[in-house]
Amino acid sequence: MTPNPLFAPFLDHLAQAGLHVESVAVHGLAPTQVLTLPAEEWGRLGQEAKGWGCRWAAGWGEDMGAEMDPQGGKTIRIHACFEKGGAYLLARTTIPRTHPILPSHTPSYPAADRPERHTQDLFGVAFTDHPDARRWTRHQAWKSSEYPLRRDFPAAGHPPAATSADYQYKFLAAQGGGVYEIPVGPVHAGIIEPGHFRFQAVGETVLHLEEHLGYTHKGIEKIAEGRDAQGLARLAGRVSGDSTVAHAWAACMAMERAAELTPPPRATWLRALMCERERVANHLGDIGAIANDVGFAFSFYQFGRLRESWQRASFDAFGHRFMMDRIVPGGVAVDLEPQFMAPLREEVTALRKQVNKLMAMVYDSPSLTNRLLGAGVLAPEQAAALGCMGYVGRASSLDFDVRRNAPYPPYDQLQVKGVLHHTGDVNARMRVRHEEIIASLDLIEALLAGLPGGPVGSEWQAPIAGSEGLGIVEGWRGEIISYARFGDDGRIARFFPRDPSWTTWPALEVLIHDNIVPDFPVCNKSVNGSYSGQDL
Amino acid sequence: MLRILGKIQRVGIVTEPLPAADEPALTEIGEQLKAKIGELFGGSLAIREVDAGSCNGCELEIQALNNPWYGIEHYGVHFVASPRHADMLLVTGPVSRHMEEALRRTLAATPEPRLVIAVGACGADGGEFGESYASRGAVANVIPVDAVIRGCPPTPLDLMRGILEAIRVR
């Protein structure tokens, strides 16, 4: 396979810079450009990619056992995925398991910070010049000398009879007159996911926020191993419950590319229909919740009402309120019956009218907008440095959307309206949601109008051992990158789903700076990171 | 402001009567619930929800109980911020090992008499995640459980039925 032409100049540049990069053809990973390079040049690759203007999108490891080395030495393979202008580059290197040391990408890319610490905790890889050697995902459930994603670590592990609360995590401490600390969580006040926030504040002003996540770590990557394709799709649909459609789609796309299987057109159109419905449902809920966090109950109840009827329609048409387990390897599990076409179309018209009317009232309510305008500002350069995308990026001038920049079927045949704002505040993130709802409703109309006939699935054929694939889709939070590699008997050897929340949680720490503590809930809700999606 | 009031008036009350065809005894249970809440909890049942490792699917449906369609407060049920104010814990799972102690402490902070309901397929038996180095699986593996509401996730109506059932049995 020829290298992706978009990255050809970069590969030339790397060669001229003296890096020993090798372009590799891997069918399931195309159109992503794959390259390998020696471990000692890993850090320099990060610097060069940064200089070239690439976004650091994802990073993960895999224990390859003795597969990579003819001499039988055990190795760990490290991946880093970059994106520029809608083209993706997957860099790989291998390191010996006996000496798992690698330069870090974090000095060039803050976005690599937590993913590398996740790899450190789960594979025992030391990133030599990483500025923060603290653990990230590991609390007290396994020892610092144990690495759950290594092959010799059993899925059951060797846990203590009862796992103690986490302790000795070294939060940044602030000193000085009037500085005080507020610990929050893991159990929060609302009906929400668990995590810990440590605030340093002076008066009402937040000096510093530090997140400590990992509370919902449930070993998704480990228990994915050995599953069949159907089992992996179910698991992927539970990486983050609110993104069940998008994660299942990304995982199935990865597996289908590995298996060189193309789902029939009707299946991809139905997938997109469900994915847009998921986006609308979540944005409706979020707009209501953002308003509620500053005491504007009217909006909370109105949008809650719209979301509920939307979910009921999903249940009627697809048999599940979240459309969970509707995307399966090869296609979709349920067809859309003809009698639902008209109601789904009418629902779009009605919702567009309702949302625009309600948003006009929201924008016209000074007591509400006063709290949202200028709150939680994420400057475009901060968002870019953290590799943000999705509605968080698009509220801060970062115009990236997988559906438009790296389109996959059926979006390659559809017009996806771009939504972009520049102020980076809570208000902008709410506006982006509003406009994305309208854009999704347009898409849903187009999807219903152009829905092809034919079957809704292709028969799943498990690929040979070693086949790998990459699925990249635009979930409602933004780009999801899903990697799958098969082992023997059609069983999964490695699965890594990169939820967009990996990039937006660090953004929350930045944007809350200098805001008042009482505005934390609304700032947090405007970002709405998934705990489960990043804890894995 | 006038537009807001106008909207409220036009939309009216959307809270639906519990579907009689679906569950004929539900209205009756609702009345019993009110009676039981009067008897055991002074007229108001306070619930503290604890996500002990869930994918967040169950949380979305529990949140939906507060939307105007269900309006669970009509039955005297409300969600509280502190376990110290709670009569009932609604716990979703699987219980991650990293949340295990936090869950125990939340239970310890909940005054008696109290009820614990394990919610969802994962809370009931570990669901898709089961037990592993990272997960304890079912809520009952960590704290005593009085009732279980299954489903992945259970719908708001499933949750309402489950809460009513748990109290009726008690």
What features would you describe in this structure?
The complex is a heterodimer of chains A (536) and B (170). Chain A is an alpha+beta fold. Chain A has helices at 8-16, 42-52, 113-123, 220-224, 229-236, 244-258, 265-292, 297-318, 341-363, 366-372, 380-385, 390-394, 402-405, 426-450, 501-511, 520-527, 531-535; strands at residues 22-24, 33-36, 55-65, 75-84, 87-96, 101-102, 126-127, 179-184, 196-202, 205-212, 327-328, 331-332, 468-474, 479-486, 492-498. Chain A folds into 2 domains: 8-127, Beta Polymerase, domain 2 (2-Layer Sandwich), CATH 3.30.460; 220-503, Cytochrome-c3 Hydrogenase, chain B, CATH 1.10.645. Chain A has 17 helices and 15 strands. In chain A, a hairpin with a 4-residue loop joins strand 13 (468-474) and strand 14. In chain A, helix 7 runs antiparallel to helix 14 (426-450) and helix 14 (426-450) runs parallel beside helix 16 (520-527). The model of chain A has no long low-confidence stretch (mean pLDDT 95). Chain B has helices spanning 2-11, 26-41, 57-64, 100-108, 120-125, 156-169; strands at residues 45-51, 77-79, 88-92, 95-96, 115-119, 135-137, 147-149. In chain B, strand 1, helix 3 (57-64) and strand 2 form a beta-alpha-beta unit. Chain B is globular, with a radius of gyration of 17 Å. In chain B, 51% of the residues are buried. At the A-B interface, helix 4, helix 8, helix 9 and helix 17 of A face helix 1, strand 1, helix 3 and helix 4 of B.
Specify which chain pair forms the largest interface. A-B, 64 and 52 residues
Oligomer: heterodimer
Low-confidence stretches of chain B: 18-25
User: Helical proportion of chain B?
Assistant: 25-40%
Bin the helical content of chain A: 25-40%
Please state the overall shape of chain A, judged from the principal axes of the Cα atoms: globular
Number of helices of chain A: 17
Main beta sheet strand tally, sense and closure of chain A: 5 strands, mixed
Shape of chain B: globular
How far the N terminus sits from the C terminus of chain B, by CA atoms, comes to 46 Å
Mean pLDDT of chain B equals 88
* Rg result of chain B: 17 Å
Low-confidence stretches of chain A: none
Name of the CATH homologous superfamily of the largest domain in chain A: Cytochrome-c3 Hydrogenase, chain B
Global mean pLDDT of chain A: 95
CATH topology of the largest domain in chain A: Cytochrome-c3 Hydrogenase, chain B
Largest sheet of chain B: 5 strands, parallel
Number of domain units of chain A: 2
Architecture (CATH level 2) name of the largest domain in chain A: Orthogonal Bundle
Q: How many angstroms does the end-to-end distance of chain A come to? A: 34 Å
